[in-house]
Amino acid sequence: xxxxxxxxxxxxxxxxxxxxSKYNNDIAHETLEWIKRITGQPENTAGDADNLYEVLKDGxxxxxxxxxxxxxxxxxxxxxxxxxxxxxxxxAFLETVKxxxxxxxxxxxxxxxxEKQNLYSVVICLQSLGRKAGTYGLPSIGPxxxxxxxxxxxxDQLKAGQNVISLQYGTNxxxxxxxxxxxRRQI
Length: 187
Known about the structure:
The chain is mostly helical. The chain has a domain at 11-136: Actin-binding Protein, T-fimbrin, domain 1. 47% of the residues lie in helices and 0% in strands. The chain has eight helices and no strands. Helix 2 packs across helix 7 (119-132).
């Protein structure tokens, strides 16, 4: 994290506090335990934000994790601790999880992890990846992903549905009290 920056103040500090309040140590611990089951790392699976950041900040563990899903999905994992090399690792992880089926709205931005801006979104991304793990023969975490429920309607059913008045148009059941149209205001 960039220690040379001044702390946030005012509305920015409030927004950051709101983001940080979403973080859950128990879910982060569960996520790190899941990563350890698959990759054998990290040694420390404490769920506090500082530990999660220290374990994941260089992106190498994240790249190793997605390589367990598909061999060689991240071809070059940078071992350097230089900022741009670590951020390349994180970005390679993010591109791979999208290809593995994690919805884009459940991913995070590189800066969220690198500058410790939004570790909650990092955990959400890993949990979403954990739901996909079962389809790749790996242990999964979190709630089971829903199956598709495709419905087929006949032409008669579709035509019958066109005659139904949607509740968005209101209802003709009863009358609202106190409303009458056409009366003049008495002065």
